[in-house]
Every structure is written in structure tokens, then in C-alpha cells.
Amino acid sequence: MAVPITVLDCDLLLYGRGHRTLDRFKLDDVTDEDLMSMYGFPRQFIYYLVELLGPSLSRPTQRSRAISPETQILAALGFYTSGSFQTRMGDAIGISQASMSRCVANVTEALMERASQFIRFPADEASMQALKDEFYGLAGMPGVVGVVDCIHVAIKAPNAEDLSYVNRKGLHSLNCLMVCDIRGTLMTVETNWPGSLQDCAVLQQSSLSSQFEAGMLKNNWLLGDSSFFLRTWLMTPLPLPKTPAEDRYNLAHSATHSVMEKTLQTLCSRFRCLDGSKGALQYSPEKSSHIITACCVLHNISLEHSMDVWSSPLAGPVQQSPEEEYEPMESLDHEADRSRQELVLAHFS
């Protein structure tokens, strides 16, 4: 005997009839426990997203006008936090996988439109000084305004001929450049770089590098690991410390850089679509890049709402993304070498 299953008509949902909103699903009908277990975020956070993104998700030009903004947002959160369209959300509110896919696309673009509102590097002197004071208070490393690193996110092969996205492990990925502050807030995010590029090449070609090289952020520096070249504005670890002062410098560097390591782990733990546990993102590089950025926007919004950045509401181990092994980069910048040595002597001797 066939069991009747209510699934809303996909064409009606996507294209609508007279742009009517179908209110078959109500957010108020979902328990707080189900919201956290299925979507990874509390009720008030979701209400905020509905208010923030609602105008974009309700525009008459949007195909999915027939699906309410709150339903679209829950569909997208279900994908971001699980990495799969096969979630209980589809059963709970009765929308098809195709409709969920369209919801993810709509919400992703709405978050992309607001990326600059939530991901930004402070430019005023007071904010920069506050960053330096906070980082110095962590491990005694002076002058630091941010910690930089890259993370690979697996994507499907764009086509058989394009090898630019194949990283050293033979996997297709995007190499994403990120900079965070001491709280884990992402201040710079560039998610469009092909996986074949090494971290140092990504940074060299980034808009962030252009800003520092042009002196727009002078008298400050970033902290990066040994996958990057030493620069006057980028302090890396000493490859072979020879003195107690150099050891202390490396220890302070490692303690400070751990902020980024924890931030990336949290990002992938909360947003399982990024960690590869459910496979690669099944989108083009451009759409995959937008999804990654959307997750970064949500990460920063969650911080603004005082959510715990250092833990994820989702259970289970975090599968490592396909990051590449790298050889420590030797410094080719004598001025940068001198700056690092002066830093060691002045603050760690």
C-alpha cells in the first residue's frame, strides 16, 4: 500500500502563481531543540536572518517568491550545517530537493550582497590600535593586527581539462585566504583562488597584499605560518631558532597563530558543507566560492550575536579539508629579515 507523502509542487514553488507565498510551514511550530539539531542556530538568530535577508528573498523578481523567506533560510542553513540536501528539513516542511537547492542559491546570494557589511578590515587608527593591544595581551606579540592563513575546500571537478583547481593531493579545491582577529572574527575573506595555487601565491595575488604593499596599513603586520614568505608586513616563524630570544619569539608566534587555527576548525565544524565529510561541493568554482563566503558571513553574524565561536552545536569529529603539505618558505626579503630580527631583539631578548 502506497504511503501518501506531501511534497509541494516544485514548479509552483519556484515560479509561483501570482507570486503567492505558501505558509504551510511555520517557524514557531518547530521546537528550539529541533532548530539547533537540524539547523545549528537558535531561534532568535534565525529571526534576525529573516529580518536581514527577507527583502532580498521576497523580491517579485525572485523565482522562489512562493516559498517564504524563513523557509528558504532554514533550507539553506540545513545545507550549510550538514553538507547535504538529504536533511530532515525536507520531510519536516515538505519541499523537494530541487526546491532546497534553489533556496540555497537564493540565500547564498542574499548573504553575498551583505558580505562587505559583516566582513571588513578596520581602517581607522583607533580600531587598529585596539587590535594590536588585544593580540599583544594574548602572547606578547607586538604590532599584530590580524592572523592570516589559507584553507582548502573541496569542489567538484569543473571539467576534465582544467587542472588549475587540482591541489597537490590530486583533489579539486578552492584555496581560501582568511584573516581573523583575536575573537575569531573574519576581517578578510577571499574564496575564489584555484586549489593549485600555493598559499604564498594566493597571498601575493590577493587584494590584501596590495593594500599592505601600498602602505595603506603601514606600521602594522599580519602573522602567518611558514607557508608564506616573510614580508615587512607579515611575520612568519623562524625556521631554525638559535637563541632563547628566537625560541620565545616562535612560542609567542605559535600561541597567537592558534587563534586562526581554532577559527578555521570552528568554521568547518559548524558548516559541514566546507569540511568534505559529505563530499565535495557539487557546484561550479564561482558558486562554491559564494557558498564559502556566505558561511563566513554567517560565522561573523553569529559572533555579533554572542554565540560561542570556539564550539560547534553539531556533534561528531571534524574531517580535515584537503589542505596541502608545504615546505617552509625561505625569506627573500632582506628588509623583512631585518624587521623580524629587530622585533626579536626588542621584545623577546
From TrEMBL:
Record keywords, A-Z: Cytoplasm, Hydrolase, Metal-binding, Nuclease, Nucleus
One Gene Ontology molecular-function label: hydrolase activity
Occurrences of domain DDE Tnp4 (ranges): 148-300
UniProt key word ATP-binding: no
Primary location recorded for the protein, binned into one broad class: cytoplasm
One Pfam family, short name: DDE_Tnp_4
UniProt-annotated location(s): Cytoplasm; Nucleus
Family under the similarity heading: Belongs to the HARBI1 family.
Role of this protein: Transposase-derived protein that may have nuclease activity. Does not have transposase activity.
Protein name as catalogued: Putative nuclease HARBI1
Organism: Heterocephalus glaber
Gene: HARBI1
